[in-house]
Write a structure and sequence with these properties.
By secondary structure, this protein is α+β, with helices and mostly antiparallel strands. The protein folds into 2 domains: 224 residues, Arp2/3 complex 21 kDa subunit ARPC3 (Orthogonal Bundle), CATH 1.10.1760.20; 158 residues, Alpha-Beta Plaits (2-Layer Sandwich), CATH 3.30.70.270. The protein is built from 13 helices and 6 strands. Strands 2-3-1-4-5-6 form a 6-stranded mixed β-sheet, sandwiched between helices.
């Protein structure tokens, strides 16, 4: 008997359950034969949920799913109109928008099913919170929001973990940290919407507009910040670029001077990188740079200055303290498995403020001299600049461990 792919072992039951809940909600809602007045409320929230799904709340740290204001309207719908209307509001709007955006149908089905399951479970738990007092109303909104959040977090993270072959628990943890604040704020928004709706549905409908306007403003602000960040980022490696490097060095030097602490710059250059481009072509060379950049990213604040040159900033460290850090970085590069390219090595040049340089230009120049000294004396090594020996000969050189 043919076994199902591991991915379908999760997707199939979730989608099947979600479809059954969606059909049951549609049948239940239709069977109630709502009047035009009764239909208006859920329809307003459904339309608001659909529009909100078009503009996710900006949160680049959330890895497992988008966050949209549709959560506010789904939570409110469950409390105000019952389980069937709540399920349809949570499911239809986001699913329709994702289909219009031509997202993969399997992903749309899975996300919609997760929304349906979360809304149904939330409605079931809300039913246990009896009463119409203020405390009960607050409890209903919190229970509805918490149930949807928890189920969405677990099921979407499980789907991402399966498809991307990532560990489930760390993904849940990182996504929870990234979404807890915006979802808490949205829960407060849902509570306000429910309270205002119970006083005056017409007045609460007017509240939908400002909520969507806030979402649009936040998204436009995020896009502007993203464009600014892109201007300061190297697209190949994802590291900060040359422009960002000079600005950051300037700030770190001012901070080091004010606090009377050292600041060390380590320039890193891949050895014989031209040979890689000549033998394997520039696409392979770009691959090597991207891999080296990813390896460097774990060693502090790193910048790509251009070509095969990188910079590592080490605030509050002297040149002597920077040498073992540089050696570890070079060792990590030397252990990279780059397929047909084989192994590559790198050299490093170190200079420190104020011991070896008194301003930004001098610091960069001396670190560069130390780097070229390392390359001329065997490569695959780190060297520090020695002011007392003049500009020509860096000293305190140390070979990087070989893979």
């Amino acid at each position: 008997m043919r076994r199902l792919p591991p991915r379908l072992l999760l997707v199939a039951p979730v989608c099947g359950t979600g479809l059954a809940i969606a059909l049951a909600a549609a049948i239940s809602f239709a069977a109630a034969r709502p009047s035009a007045r009764e239909l208006a409320g859920p329809l307003v929230l459904l339309l608001a949920s659909t529009v909100a799904s078009r503009y996710p709340v900006a949160n680049e740290d959330a890895e497992s799913s988008d966050i949209t204001l549709s959560f506010v309207f789904a939570t409110s719908g469950i409390v105000l109109f019952g389980w069937d209307a709540g399920v349809l509001i949570a499911l239809v709007g986001p699913a329709a928008m994702q289909l219009l955006e031509r997202r993969p149908r399997e992903r749309v089905a899975y996300n919609a099913s997760v929304s349906a399951i979360g809304a149904a479970v939330a409605a079931g738990l809300v039913a246990f919170v009896d009463g119409s007092g203020t405390e009960n109303l607050v409890a209903q909104v919190i229970v509805s929001a918490a149930a949807q959040c928890m189920l969405s977090l677990l099921l979407i993270s499980a789907g991402v973990a399966r498809s991307a072959r990532r560990a489930f628990a760390p993904l849940v943890e990182s996504s929870a940290r990234a979404t807890i604040v915006p979802l808490a704020l949205m829960t407060s928004g849902a509570l306000v919407l429910v309270v205002v709706w119970q006083r005056s549905p017409l007045l609460s409908a007017a509240l939908v507009g400002p909520l969507l306007a806030i979402s649009l403003y936040q998204r436009s602000t995020y896009q502007a910040l993203s464009a600014m960040r892109l201007a300061l980022t190297d697209p190949l490696t994802g590291l900060a670029n040359h422009r960002s490097f000079h600005e950051r060095v300037r700030r770190e030097l001012a901070r080091a001077d004010a606090r009377n602490v050292p600041f060390t710059l380590c320039l890193i250059d891949i050895d014989d990188f031209k040979r890689v481009n000549d033998l394997f072509g520039h696409p392979v060379g770009d691959y090597v740079l991207a891999r080296v950049g990813a390896r460097l990213r774990h060693n502090g604040e790193v910048f790509r200055l251009g070509g095969d040159e990188f910079a590592l900033l080490l605030p509050a460290r002297s040149a002597e303290e920077a040498v073992p850090v540089a050696q570890r970085v070079l060792s990590r590069i030397a252990t990279l498995d780059l397929g047909d390219v084989g192994r590559v090595t790198a050299s490093a040049g170190i200079a420190s403020f104020p011991a070896q340089a008194l301003d930004r230009d001098e610091l960069i120049r001396h670190a560069d001299r130390a780097l070229y000294w390392a390359k001329e004396h065997g490569k695959s090594r780190a060297a520090t600049f020695a002011r007392e020996l003049g500009h020509a000969a860096p000293a305190t050189a140390a070979a990087a461990p070989q893979a």
